[in-house]
């Protein structure tokens, strides 16, 4: 089967930019408390529900996977880019990382307690989001938790807007429209955090964090 062009472009972009990108996100991640605020909540809710495996999809160099492990979550990382996975394995040798696609996770049905997609759905074209969310639902156990983070798009009717990401083409999404797509895929929204545009010194985008639960 021919691979969609957006996956090929995303893989190539992150393979080429792997080292400087890893250095950039590694430095920024611990310095942004609002961007990290929902991850401990997600981890605590996963533990409270009995624990289980959590997939960090689009894990990049593995910094968020490692953070989840520090919060006593059994996390593993998946990324499209072999170069990113190589960096993640080198930086965190005690953790599991694998090359893969969030659109086709190599896990059994209903086998995960949680999925975290931290700014990794942004390279997915809008028309492919429903299929991606359906895959997340397939992989999650009933009651499993999904945490999404993405650049927000504040528009009364639009779903998404493309923007020139430093690595490859990306999209910022309307939190309300994403919540609607999640509902259509069988999720119930639990909570959201939308960080004001003025807090983004680079582009002035709102930053959205949506926490949802898979229904039975």
Structural class: alpha/beta
Distance between the termini: 32 Å
Helix and strand run = HHHHEHEHEEHEEEHEE
What count of domains describes the coordinates? 1
Strand content: 25-35%
In the CATH classification, which architecture applies? 3-Layer(aba) Sandwich
Question: Uncertain regions: pLDDT < 50 for 5+ in a row?
Answer: none
The chain-level mean pLDDT equals 95
CATH superfamily: Vaccinia Virus protein VP39
Please give the CATH class. Alpha Beta
Beta strands, count = 9
Which strands sit side by side, in order, in the main sheet?
3-2-1-4-5-9-8
How many helical stretches?
8
Helical residue percent? 25-40%
The oligomeric state of the chains shown is single chain
CATH fold naming = Rossmann fold
Radius of gyration: 16 Å
Shape: globular
**How does the major sheet shape up?**
7 strands, mixed
Structure characteristics:
single chain; 216 residues; alpha/beta; Rossmann fold; 7-stranded mixed β-sheet; two-stranded antiparallel sheet; 8 helices; 9 strands
In a nutshell, what does this entry contain?
With 216 residues, this protein is an alpha/beta fold. Helices cover 36% and strands 27% of the residues. The model has no long low-confidence stretch (mean pLDDT 95).
